[in-house]
Amino acid sequence: MAQPHAVEVLLRPAVELYTVAVCAGAALVCLVAPWSLALSPLLGVGSALTFLVFGAIRLRDAWVILRYRRNIRRLPRYVMTSRDVPVSQHRLFVGRGFRWEQRHTHRLVQTYKPEFRRYAEPTTFYRMARRLEERLEFAPPPLPKLARVLAWDSPLNPARPLPPVGGLPRLHGIEPHEIDVTLPLGERVGHTLVLGTTRVGKTRLAELFITQDIRRKVNGEHEVVIVFDPKGDADLLKRMYVEARRAGREGEFYVFHLGWADISARYNAVGRFGRISEVATRIARQLSGEGNSAAFREFAWRFVNIIARALVELGQRPDYLLIQRHVVNIDALFIEYAQHFFAKTEPKAWEVIVQLEARLNDKTIPRHMVGREKRVVALEQYLSQTRIYDPVLDGLRSAVRYDRTYFDKIVASLLPLLEKLTTGKIAQLLAPNYSDLSDPRPIFDWMQIVRKRAIVYVGLDALSDAEVAAAVGNSMFSDLVSVAGHIYKHGIDDGLPGADASTKVPINVHADEFNELMGDEFIPLINKGGGAGMQVTAYTQTLSDIEARIGNRAKAGQVIGNFNNLFMLRVRETATAELLTRQLPKVEVYTTTLVSGATDSSDIHGPTDFTSNAQDRISTSSVPLIEPAHVVGLPKGQCFALIEGGNLWKVRMPLPAPDPDEVMPKDLQQLAGYMRQHYIEEGEWWERAGAPCLQDDDSLPEDLAEEAHSDEARS
């Protein structure tokens, strides 16, 4: 086997083709006119075969050069239908690519040298065709037809336009030999971070991962799939349903969508808990704990905990509506719990309380109880005269003893959060009525989802109301953390016959635009959730998004430090690109230098007038494996992947091909159509600010259109 040269040069003319032409000509002569070479016909055939074998070897060498030069300018198309996505029980398919090594850095450095630029950049004919195409767009007929011919996307077109993916094809074209890039499933417990700016392929990569998670079976059982989609991607929802149906799991598919409450499943974020204090923790954790706000958050935690304990004692399941109702008016809960408590312990106490209430007037009510109901004041007087101890009753009593205005100030930071979670139709989703059997919308909780190995799509409608989306998302993350802790200690079958604490299943959590959802709840989920089988894949745009959301650089670093696998698509922020490049070593690349010179002879009578020399010097220089500029120049659908303990891979994802077997239920089709029509990127909101379609009732859902007509009738 031939040893590779110290300096590899693939950007050069394919001079091997000259040898191929000579060998072909010689073989032809040997076959047609062997007598011209003084050969017999038999020796002519043997010589022709020898020339053809040698020509084939040189043709193979020439093909390496030609293919390399072609890939540098244009990569071959890579398309795959969803049905063809490989699903393994041991590895996660990412795409096709290669492991990035020193030789790839050397090849990439060569493409930027002036002598090689003509091989790496578009040809003069290509640039002329594009300029002519632009000029002919508004030319009189029939010249625009010529523009369409120039833009014909076919290999037969010598001026074929490049695919609309932007970036530098050379970043992937420097390695013609691609293989399937996969990630061992055991590495996913270390969590995965996907970074990339808008519209570069994050959602496509998410679809690829989610497709495999839905269809994968390990030991005969499916895996749990939970997808958080803040902005609402209709194609992602469609892909999830189609794959669920293809895997025979449409009965385990749940859609929770804040913008489409009529068909959304319902969910109570505080209805299931291991310890009653978790209810207060999940709600208070979303309040600010910085500076003076920390004390108010502690007070809010205490009052929510008091209310939750009382509700549980009364046999009621806590939800946001009940908690808000009693935060606003805690007197009613105090009276209701007192009736429940005295009915069991001291039935005659209520007669005394009624007598005390009858004696009260404005003068006999204590100053700190002004504004309270008389029955509350009577209860307080009765409890102060008797030696009754009940922790829940004492907690409620301490709450009503506060001055009314002081109490309102203490819970002032809690009420805006509860308003976000209980306004409009959202209240029906987050505070479901369990006794209403006529409501067909299912109710789920995370433990139920895990036990059923179900699939959940969570659309948070963040483009319509980012505040409510963040509040609901944080509530769900907080609930997931609690469930993860329970599974870690007791397994998923706790309380069932034959339960085994070691029984766990992979729980695949995909959080698109997770910076919009992330709060303090997300940190323990990725920090400690792996022990419960949580496998988080988070998608966002920049590191600054994470830091801006958390508001603390140290916490942002804590979040990033818990992701073991990193997929970096094109980014526009250098600091984000450096998250990848700073983790990579430097390598030595070879450079050649041409040195020539001439020296005059000092002996004017000698036979030599001057001496000259020419040298090719090979030197090495240390450069980073990749630069941040390379990450910024990635085409759409391509990424650098740092996986399996820091191994760098260059990957491109397959383009989606249309699949004929993609049918959704009518209600989900309406939801997907509404999402496509109304959900736009954050930077494009102004384009539809005055769009007529937004003023037309036909563009609204039926319920909103009816409300609009009724408002017009009233006016």
Characteristics:
15% strand, 715 residues, Rossmann fold, two-stranded parallel sheet, alpha/beta
Question: Can you tell me about this structure?
Answer:
It comes from Sinimarinibacterium flocculans. InterPro entries: Conj_coupling_TraG/TraD_PFGI-1, Conjugative_coupling_TraG/TraD, P-loop_NTPase, TraG-D_C. Keywords: Membrane, Transmembrane, Transmembrane helix. By secondary structure, the chain is an alpha/beta fold. Among the domains are: about 15-75; about 185-265 and about 440-580, P-loop containing nucleotide triphosphate hydrolases (Rossmann fold), CATH 3.40.50.300; about 275-420, no CATH class; about 685-715, no CATH class. It is built from 28 helices and 19 strands. The strands form five sheets. Strands 3-2-18-17-14-4-13-12-7-11-8 form an eleven-stranded mixed sheet, with helices on both faces. Strand 5 and strand 6 (about 220) form a beta hairpin. Helix 10 runs antiparallel to helix 11 (about 295-315), helix 21 (about 465-490) packs parallel to helix 22 and helix 23 packs across helix 24 (about 555-560). The protein is elongated, with a radius of gyration of 36 Å. It starts with 15 loop residues before the first helix and ends with a helix. About 35% of the residues are buried. Residues about 680-715 have low confidence and may be disordered.
Question: How are the elements arranged and paired?
Answer:
Layout: H1 16-32, H2 41-73, E1 79-80, E2 91-99, H3 102-111, H4 117-120, H5 124-136, H6 143-150, H7 170-173, E3 179-184, E4 192-195, H8 202-215, E5 217-218, E6 221-222, E7 224-229, H9 234-246, E8 253-257, E9 266-267, H10 277-284, H11 293-313, H12 320-328, H13 330-345, H14 349-359, H15 374-385, H16 391-400, H17 404-410, H18 414-421, H19 426-430, E10 443-444, H20 446-452, E11 455-459, H21 466-490, E12 507-511, H22 522-528, E13 534-540, H23 543-550, H24 553-560, E14 565-568, H25 574-581, E15 586-600, E16 610-624, H26 628-632, E17 638-643, E18 647-652, E19 655-656, H27 666-678, H28 702-714
Parallel strand pairs: 1-19, 4-13, 4-14, 7-11, 7-12, 8-11, 9-10, 12-13
Antiparallel strand pairs: 2-3, 2-18, 5-6, 14-17, 15-16, 17-18
Helix pairs in contact: 1-2, 5-6, 8-9, 9-27, 10-11, 11-16, 12-13, 12-18, 13-16, 14-15, 21-22, 23-24
Domain TraD/TraG TraM recognition site: 507-635
Protein name: Conjugative coupling factor TraD (TOL family)
Pfam families: TraG-D_C
